Amino acid sequence: MRKVTIIGAGRTGRGTFGELFFSEGGFDIAFADINADLVRALREQGYFVTKQTDLDTGAFKQIRVDGFEVFDVRADRGAYLRRLADSEFVAIAVFPASFDAVAQDLADMIRLRIEEGMTNKAAVIIGGNFVGLRSYFEGALEKLLDAGELAVLDGQVALITSKANRKVTFSSDPDAEPLALEGDDKPILPVEDRFFFDEGYEYPSFFQRSNDVELSMAEKIWSENLLHCSLGFMGAYKGYEYLNDAASDELCADLAGKAWREGRRALEAEFGIPVPDDSLLETMLGKFGSPYFRDRIERVVRQPIRKLCRGERFLGPALLCLKHGIMPFFILRAAAYGFFVPNTGDEQAAKIEEILASMPLENAVVTITGLNPSVPDEAIACRLLVGFAQEIQCLEGAEKPKPAEGEITR
């Protein structure tokens, strides 16, 4: 059987890459992760269940994925690298903070292929909500490999950007099996058509090969993900538990929609991507508000510092707006709610709390976002974020009930 190794056994690794390769059939699947507890759980259970739901009708199907191997990236290092070297496909499903570690794994894989005299063609399918995925990994590998090793990479192992665009969460069913996942029912995986396989090669049927996936990723992150996370940040501030509730809130939906339109105008100005009519916005809000998919806001807003950084779903399109003379008023208004994401155990939310409490707001915004106030466009973004954060604080104070006469205040 053809081997595929999926680096990252979380929601996207299992619920998108894992399920798609399993349902295709004919693949020997392995997962690899640094989370020893997750590795142990997958080994002991030996399977997991995914549920894909049509967000328009509620129709769903459940797939039990089994028969896979699992590697601990650290504890099983030798066997893990051997598996990577032997794989026809390597799929990456990790957060950006782990990109450099995975690049090191790929560099070690290349060296092992050279040692073993391997010349078979392979493909590394890179997944993640990140603009410039392939460029990032190419740059990281150029620093890790010498000229001869890079020649082997460039001739034998194709780096392929993918758009893993399923919405995958842990199951919301209290009676669900351990490790169960649920999401929408997208049956395809858009991938760059940069493979090195010979003519006549049989690609997985779920691959949707095209030459514009990198551009499509920028469009997705700086418009759809912008809308999604705007709803999440505002919904979290208002105390909603599920994204459905935020999408059904008239004010949240209106402000998020206006942010989306600003992002679309920036994409048109930079890349020539036409601004769609409002029917697309209505469709997306309808899917986010679907009663058939309960997406926890806690999941949507996790790692808020990452989401507020340059190049991400807020500052990426905001700075693109400023570059083209478009004021990103609503994008940065939505982003400002990210400074007030409730701390429910997320390390980055706790870090934001700590930063806001330890320095003036102007300095806190720079520290959290990484913006450089000496750069004109970034200085404008900083000032807007500070103003919107102050507005939120003022409104929060105004909404607090005044103490009754004689009541002691703190």
From TrEMBL:
Domain Mannitol dehydrogenase C-terminal: 219-353
InterPro entries recorded: 6-PGluconate_DH-like_C_sf, 6PGD_dom2, Mannitol_DH_C, NAD(P)-bd_dom_sf
PANTHER family in the cross-refs: ALTRONATE OXIDOREDUCTASE-RELATED, MANNITOL-1-PHOSPHATE 5-DEHYDROGENASE
Protein name: Mannitol dehydrogenase C-terminal domain-containing protein
Protein species of origin: Paratractidigestivibacter faecalis
Lineage: Bacteria, Bacillati, Actinomycetota, Coriobacteriia, Coriobacteriales
